[in-house]
Amino acid sequence: MIHPIPPGTRDVLPEEMAELRRLQSSLLGVFERFGFQEVRTPTIEYAEVLERGGGSGVEDAYRFFDDRGELLALRTDMTIPIARLVATRFGELEPPYRLSYLANAYRAVTPKRAELREFGQAGIELIGAAGADGTAEVVEVLGRTLDAVGLREARVGLGEADLWSCLLTDFGGDQALLAETTGLLARHDIVGIEAALAASELDRDRCESLLGMIQLRGGPQVIDQARGLGGSRFGECLDRLESTYHAIAARGGAERVRIDLGLMRELGYYSGTTIEVYDPSVGEIIGGGGRYDGLMRRFGADHAAAGFTLYLEPIHKAQIEQGLSGAGPPDA
Prior knowledge:
41% of the residues lie in helices and 19% in strands. It has helices at residues 14-33, 47-53, 79-89, 131-148, 163-170, 175-186, 190-198, 204-214, 221-226, 232-250, 295-298, 312-321, and strands spanning 37-38, 44-46, 63-65, 71-74, 97-106, 118-127, 155-160, 217-218, 257-260, 273-278, 287-291, 305-311. The chain has a nine-stranded mixed β-sheet with strand order 1-5-6-12-11-10-7-9-8, sandwiched between helices. Strands 2-4-3 form a three-stranded antiparallel β-sheet. Helix 5 (163-170) packs antiparallel against helix 10 and helix 6 packs antiparallel against helix 7. It is globular and about 60 Å long. The termini are far apart.
């Protein structure tokens, strides 16, 4: 007799479970070596906590009422719960806080698109370390983690969240156009952005400059190519991105990094440097992160912060494609 499970969920059999455990052990081992201590938060949060954190992921949360009529939600990621935890429990301690996690998260998905409702995440949060140096530490740990699980060809996209809004505003775009195109950019929908710009009141040259900017990818020379497109705020964004790249290079991590001026994370709490992780053996993003300096203030703790999360299922798939079978390399 067949007993189905909900779409977007999966059973894991013993052989795969053993591979996943080895993968998880490799990830947590790197986090620990860099001084990131593991924490755990409840799978269930008050819905108000997720809403305070903001971002599009909150809209996809599974919500339900408890026996007292309180509105609860399954966590959609780990960054917001850890922000709550730090603001609530770490008041007596001096930052920076180096925290790590290994947990499942949950989101409503579009039927028939093979998306997971329940998915594994592992990552770090560096809270209380500002600017380029803090981001560079996060990227260094990310690079060492990818090495430890055998994904030596994986690349890290590095962007700046405010580039698009600054340039579009400089060119006269209104808030409605900004909101529409920001969502499209987060979904990597260049065709949609082109259509939205064409339907706007912006002149053709400015539309072409906007489209050209978000397709600039490569080494630090792409920053120079974007100089002069916008005003002073746009230039300041480029300066921050350049400083971050140099800080990463000083730690020996620039080889993996590809600057991407069109990089935009879908989660709305990111502000400043943004990160996405790709591996050539799979056709999907295997991780992401960045700076979220304003998020902690929403919970009453004024700390700069940055972090990353890696998605366990795509990483395991990448390992399988490369014949690694869930184990790190011998020298990990």
